[in-house]
Amino acid sequence: MIPKFWQDTLMTLPLLIQFLLCPVVLAALLLVTAPYGRHHKTGWGPNLPNRVAWILMELPALLVITVLVLLSPAGNQPQAWLPLCFWIFHYAYRTFVFPILMQPSDRTFPALLVVFAVAFNALNGYNNAAALIDAGEQGVPLLSAHFLAGSVIFIGGFAVHFQADRTIRNLRQPGDRGYHVPSGGLFRWVSSPNYLGEIIQWIGWAVMTWSLAGAAFALFTLCNLAPRAISNHRWYREHFADYPADRRILVPGVF
Fold this sequence. Notes:
Elements: H1 4-31, E1 47-49, H2 50-70, H3 78-101, E2 108-110, H4 111-138, H5 145-169, H6 193-209, H7 212-239
Antiparallel strand pairs: 1-2
Helix pairs in contact: 1-4, 1-7, 2-3, 2-4, 3-4, 3-5, 4-7, 5-6, 6-7
């Protein structure tokens, strides 16, 4: 039996670390553009093929929370396993479907960023597993207003995210390795609806689980993706003279 002090520490310290990472990541990505995809550059050490990198990065997010929740005494409680189904749905897509559907590219992915992503996804999976296990043990009401609202927000965010990914994939014809200006859907109004969809998703997760771990993930997603959306918007404007002048960065009509 783990003493209560260490139980509390194992619950709160990883969560505190995740919250503290948010401003650090925000500041870092506002200063230095993450060097992958269209922003790829040399000088970041060894590289991995894009598909391999995506699978390695996302796999811990899928496995850690699933194993911890299902092997816990609370794993058979719907308060734990039903939200977990939403998480698995997203990360099964990100870990396997997204890389498989990815259009061929000459770009590679810095192994250093893969290591950072693996570490964060393991931490995030642990924190959210702890939240789901606690909800299962406490027997909190499942069909609450926040669970239903969060579910709708999550599904809506995934739909935006999935559609944007599909639009980007369809820009390239077989043998094409270049970049093109996406259009249609939310691309009519913003440069990165795929990032907007992910941010909406994890806000939905935070509402659904009504947990500090969910809030930490939603905040981290915003701090991680908003600077990347800024970089993408700037890149499009620099490389395409006819890029729509009224297209915003991330939020239609606002930002």
